[in-house]
Design goal:
six-stranded parallel sheet; 8 strands; 14% strand; two-stranded antiparallel sheet; Rossmann fold
Length: 221
């Protein structure tokens, strides 16, 4: 018999927060500022799309090597600027669902590939200061997705009896792979973000649903 879900690790952009091009726009500004030629910039944008959900500093290390820290600093500034310009919002039903999960006795961690500084800037813009039991970035846990560290960190800090009692919810293959590597009891992909259903299932999703509102509709609990 499957363990009841006691801890839920839920992604940020594309899962709980509507992206609306904020992340892609910040990456484009960063790539432009780094002075790449047109062909290199196109390749960099393609790589960024393929690695959505992963640790942003690791993406920049792969793209820019020794200049990764500069690129990351540019991205940090760009995403805050873009978010203020275009606005950020919770996906429909996200806040209500997280509060309902917590009211039922489950603990909920917000996990993201953003740095703690970017994460907290977005949390402030969204008014989410009290929404989650825990907020986690790669810098807090060790390594970013697709590694399992953020799931393990959340499970430990939120006192899950085992990783089988953890559910991971996200919109990217990296989310699903991270959950699988961590031994999470359930990995649920959502259609509100980056990757399509086939990609999410191939990465290890147990199910793919329209939004996080439906993540526990199979009755596990």
């Amino acid at each position: 018999m499957a363990a009841p879900i006691e801890v839920i690790c839920v992604d940020m952009a594309g899962t709980t927060m509507s992206d609306d091009g904020v992340v892609a726009g910040a990456f484009r500004r960063t790539i432009a500022t780094m002075g790449l030629d047109r062909v290199s910039a196109a390749r960099a944008e393609s790589y960024v799309r393929a690695t959505m959900g992963q640790s942003k500093i690791e993406v920049f290390r792969a793209l820019f090597g020794p200049s990764a820290d500069r690129a990351n600093a540019l991205f940090e500034g760009a995403i805050a600027d873009v978010a203020r310009e275009v606005g950020v919002s919770a996906l429909p039903g996200a806040e209500e669902t997280v509060r309902a999960w917590r009211a039922s006795g489950r603990r909920v961690a917000l996990t993201t590939g953003f740095s703690p500084e970017t994460r907290e800037a977005l949390v402030a813009l969204l008014g989410w200061g009290d929404l989650f039991d825990l907020r986690v970035s790669p810098a807090d846990a060790g390594r970013g997705r697709p590694n399992p560290d953020m799931v393990w960190w959340s499970a430990t800090r939120l006192e899950a009896p085992s990783c089988e009692a953890v559910m991971v919810v996200g919109d990217t293959a990296a989310d699903m792979e991270s959950g699988r590597r961590a031994g999470a009891g359930r990995c649920v992909g959502v259609r509100t973000g980056t990757d399509d259903e086939a990609t999410l299932l191939a990465a290890g999703a147990d199910a793919v649903v329209d939004s996080l509102v439906e993540a526990l509709t199979d009755g596990r609990g």
